[in-house]
């Protein structure tokens, strides 16, 4: 099922991932209103914006891989590693209060990683 629908899965997961462009455009809004964290105007603010752009580009790559099967495997492998690393880092810090603010992102990224691994291993 995943293999037959991988292009659509990549388009949808890519579009959702691209929504983090908002972090680049309006870091204070995302950090304070959506993630309930203190936004920083200094170096941390630059890193927040860079993080948002990096996630946006990751989403674009997913959508490109949906369109272009030649790049699909390496893009999916890299994005799966990236998303798994984020989830792993959050889980490693599960006792810290801010981790709950990332629950929805963690759930989405976990679902993406599961689907991508199933696809890469040819299980479905």
What does this structure look like?
The protein is built from six helices and no strands. Helix 4 (43-67) packs antiparallel against helix 5 (72-92) and helix 5 (72-92) crosses helix 6. The protein has one domain (6-121). With 124 residues, the chain is mainly alpha-helical. Helices cover 73% and strands 0% of the residues.
| Major sheet | none
What does the overall shape look like? Answer: globular
**SSE arrangement, N to C:** HHHHHH
What's the average pLDDT? 95
Strand content: under 5%
Number of domains: 1
**Rg from Cα:** 15 Å
Percentage of residues in helical conformation: over 70%
Strand count: 0
**Content-based structural category:** mainly alpha
Distance between the termini: 6 Å
Uncertain spans: none
Number of helices: 6
Question: What's this entry about, in short?
Answer:
This protein is mainly alpha-helical. Helix 4 runs antiparallel to helix 5 and helix 5 crosses helix 6. The chain has six helices and no strands.
